[in-house]
């Protein structure tokens, strides 16, 4: 039972991560490999604040979201001038730089040894330390994320985002400030990712830079693409599939080192397979090839 | 002084990596991250042949390079041409290439294990001292190879028909098709050549600093940075770019510590992407951008 709860908490964290990335990749058409960086920043900010300042959980959450959003803006603004495939490279560069900072600024982040002993959060006087407690916490934030995403997608702002995905030059010609929209979606996406990081930090009670590498970014984007980019429930489906399936491998009795790499092979292979045969993902929203919008 | 020499020696593998990346990017028309797989698959194949099967290095390395060429051409003709045929844009191909890289990376880990593998178990390298700095003969050999391969590539591109066909496709696929150039053949050749050079680079680096499954991504991104900074369209640019990045990495390491090397490299990349995307020797191309 506890194992099941653990899986569900992980699924929840990845739902938050993939929904936020979906705003960028699926709805605005900006492929970003930097998501793990925002996830990590959120986790580290929350962990540092709890450990050093002993500030309340919600304040930590708000700060993490704010700082991550700020970082999103910092990354977004120069990236605007960079064309599609080089944009991906730029986000990758940013991801590596962030990882470097987390790994090497030992006095602040503990470097490769990370931060330990992160205490369980206390929300409205209730301390959350049981797996069920964390599940409820994650579920609340998942619901929040889905609500925010839903509102954005259905709003005029969301329509402009989708238009940018389809034809950027046209949107510019329609006198919309494309740059501002792109930065804004970057900020929102980064902020939400930070929320997942905060929950993760408290849940595992120990964080180190290796959880926030490029491979993690690739995994999150795989969830978005396989689940269905550009649709609201696609990433949820993707998170369930990509988190649960490798866990099933455990029951075959493989050693965990082997199953970790097998898991990578699986989602790498799924990524290629889906791109070849069903680019819009399981829950079709936006198909990357040709401009077919299945919504 | 040691750092300056280190920087120039580092330019060897960087130049090879940059060349590999640029060939694939220009020839196939998109950023291909699957190339990262060949930087690591090449040396591991050589390792398997040399250490497990006992073949001498002089045979193992070229065989590994050949395998890389064939593997890449195979991938290009099956996976990527299929993706292209379905009208995939650049992002699709890039994401798929990511998937392929991840698969290979995991495969190498499964087959060989994540620990360091030594391909030259016969003792420490010969250390030479010249110009007041220490270096290994492998590093010099790599640098020399890099220069030779760069010059060779430049000669092939300028002098042969295949080279001209490649340059035509790199500039404009549509026009090349109109003139009657066999695009898929150019693509196969480019993918194969890039992978072969990548495998060679990986083998040489592996001979110097041993094999790790993570080396593929590291070398790939070194190559990526070099080709963007140097200018994707110019072989000379890649050499210059490699030397600049190599020097920047090592002088930077001297000033702020080696752990910041990656961060320095990528900050340089970001600066170039924003300020001068065509690189040092490149030509500014006109794009509709917002």
Instruction: Give the structural class of chain B.
Output: mainly alpha
Number of helices of chain A: 12
Strand order of the main beta sheet of chain A, please?
Answer: 1-4
Shape of chain A: globular
Strand order of the largest sheet of chain B: 1-2
Shape of chain B: globular
> Helix count of chain B, per DSSP?
11
Beta content of chain B comes to under 5%
| Whole-angstrom Rg of chain B | 19 Å
Task: Tell me the quaternary state.
Answer: heterodimer
How much helicity do the residues of chain A have?
Answer: over 70%
Cα gyration radius of chain A (Å):
19 Å
Low-confidence stretches of chain B: 286-290
| Count of DSSP strands of chain B | 2
Measured distance between first and last alpha carbons of chain B: 45 Å
Q: Greatest chain-chain interface?
A: A-B, 53 and 47 residues
Helix content range of chain B = over 70%
Distance between the termini of chain A: 37 Å
Order of helices and strands of chain B: HHHHEEHHHHHHH
The unreliable regions of chain A are 289-295
Keywords:
heterodimer, A: two-stranded antiparallel ribbon, two-stranded antiparallel ribbon, B: 290 residues, mainly alpha
Can you describe this structure?
The complex is a heterodimer of chains A (295) and B (290). Chain A has helices at 2-27, 35-53, 57-79, 84-104, 106-109, 131-154, 156-166, 168-173, 178-204, 214-227, 234-250, 256-277, and strands at residues 115-116, 122-123, 126-127, 206-207. With 295 residues, chain A is mainly alpha-helical. The radius of gyration of chain A is 19 Å and the shape is globular. Chain A contains 12 helices and 4 strands, in the order H-H-H-H-H-E-E-E-H-H-H-H-E-H-H-H. In chain A, strands 1-4 form a two-stranded antiparallel ribbon. A two-stranded antiparallel ribbon of chain A has the order 2-3. With 290 residues, chain B is mostly helical. Chain B is globular. Chains A and B meet through helix 4, helix 8, helix 10 and helix 12 of A and helix 3, helix 4, helix 9 and helix 11 of B.
């Amino acid at each position: 039972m506890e194992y099941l709860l653990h899986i569900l908490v992980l699924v929840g964290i990845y739902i938050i991560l993939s929904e936020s990335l979906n705003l960028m990749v699926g709805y605005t058409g900006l492929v970003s490999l930097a998501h793990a960086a925002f996830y990590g920043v959120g986790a580290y900010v929350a962990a540092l604040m709890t450990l050093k300042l002993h500030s309340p959980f919600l304040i930590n959450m708000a700060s993490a979201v704010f700082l991550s959003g700020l970082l999103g803006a910092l990354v977004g603004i120069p990236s605007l001038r960079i064309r599609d495939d080089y944009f991906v490279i730029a986000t990758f560069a940013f991801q590596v730089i962030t990882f470097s900072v987390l790994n090497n600024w030992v006095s602040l982040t503990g470097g490769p040894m990370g931060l330990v002993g992160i205490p369980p959060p206390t929300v409205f006087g209730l301390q959350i330390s049981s797996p069920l407690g964390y599940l409820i916490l994650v579920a609340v934030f998942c619901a929040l994320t889905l609500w925010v995403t839903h509102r954005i997608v259905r709003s005029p702002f969301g329509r402009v985002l989708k238009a940018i995905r389809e034809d950027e030059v046209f949107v510019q010609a329609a006198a919309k400030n494309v740059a501002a929209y792109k930065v804004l979606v970057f900020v929102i996406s980064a902020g939400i990712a930070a929320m997942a990081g905060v929950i993760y930090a408290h849940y595992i009670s120990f964080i180190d830079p290796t959880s926030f590498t490029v491979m993690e970014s690739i995994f999150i984007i795989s969830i978005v693409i396989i689940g269905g980019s550009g649709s609201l429930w696609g990433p949820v489906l993707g998170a369930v599939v990509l988190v649960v399936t490798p866990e099933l491998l455990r029951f075959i009795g493989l050693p965990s080192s082997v199953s970790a790499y097998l898991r990578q092979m699986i989602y790498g292979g799924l990524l290629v397979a889906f791109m070849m045969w069903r680019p819009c993902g399981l829950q079709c929203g936006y198909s990357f090839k040709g401009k077919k919008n299945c919504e | 002084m040691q750092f300056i020499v280190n920087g120039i020696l580092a330019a060897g593998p960087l130049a090879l990596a940059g060349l590999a990346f640029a060939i694939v990017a220009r020839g196939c028309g998109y950023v291909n991250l699957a190339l990262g797989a060949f930087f690591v698959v090449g040396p591991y194949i050589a390792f398997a042949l040399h250490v497990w099967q006992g073949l001498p290095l002089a045979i193992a390395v070229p065989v590994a390079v050949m395998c890389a060429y064939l593997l890449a051409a195979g991938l290009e003709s099956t996976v990527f041409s299929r993706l292209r045929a379905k009208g995939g844009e650049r992002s699709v191909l890039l994401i798929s290439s990511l998937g392929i890289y991840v698969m290979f990376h995991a495969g190498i880990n499964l087959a060989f294990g994540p620990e360091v593998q030594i391909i030259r178990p016969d003792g420490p390298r010969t250390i030479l001292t010249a110009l007041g700095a220490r270096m290994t003969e492998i590093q010099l050999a790599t640098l020399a190879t890099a220069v030779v391969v760069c010059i060779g590539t430049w000669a092939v591109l300028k002098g042969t028909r295949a080279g001209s066909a490649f340059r035509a496709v790199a500039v404009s696929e549509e026009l090349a098709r109109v003139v009657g150039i066999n695009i898929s053949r150019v693509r196969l050749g480019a993918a194969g050549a890039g992978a072969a050079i990548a495998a060679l680079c990986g083998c040489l680096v592996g001979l110097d600093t041993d094999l790790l499954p993570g080396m593929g991504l590291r070398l790939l991104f070194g190559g990526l940075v070099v080709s963007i900074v140097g200018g994707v369209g110019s072989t000379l640019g890649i050499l210059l770019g490699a030397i600049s990045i190599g020097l920047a990495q090592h002088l930077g390491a001297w000033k702020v510590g080696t752990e910041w090397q990656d961060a320095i490299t990528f900050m340089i990349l970001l600066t170039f992407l924003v300020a001068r995307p065509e690189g040092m020797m490149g030509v500014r191309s006109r794009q509709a951008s917002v």
